[in-house]
Amino acid sequence: MSIPKVSIRQLKAARAVLGWSQGDLAEAAQVSIPTVKRLEAGDGPLGGRENTVRKLTEALETAGIDFNVGNNGEVGVRLRAR
Question: What is the count of structural domains for the chain?
Fold first, then answer.
């Protein structure tokens, strides 16, 4: 499974769509809250260790988030239909 290219804005938007706090994401991804805070403090592409990025994106995807990139390069998030 390849890691999607996710931006920090997408990460924050995904949390907002789910109504999750940074602590909720940290718990679901099994990473520390300071790690989530540090990563979200920046802008641009989501950086950090590959394993950490995978844990974060997989936790959000498991909760129903789709990370998408439109035909014109727009990025976004959406909640999958249940």
Answer: 1
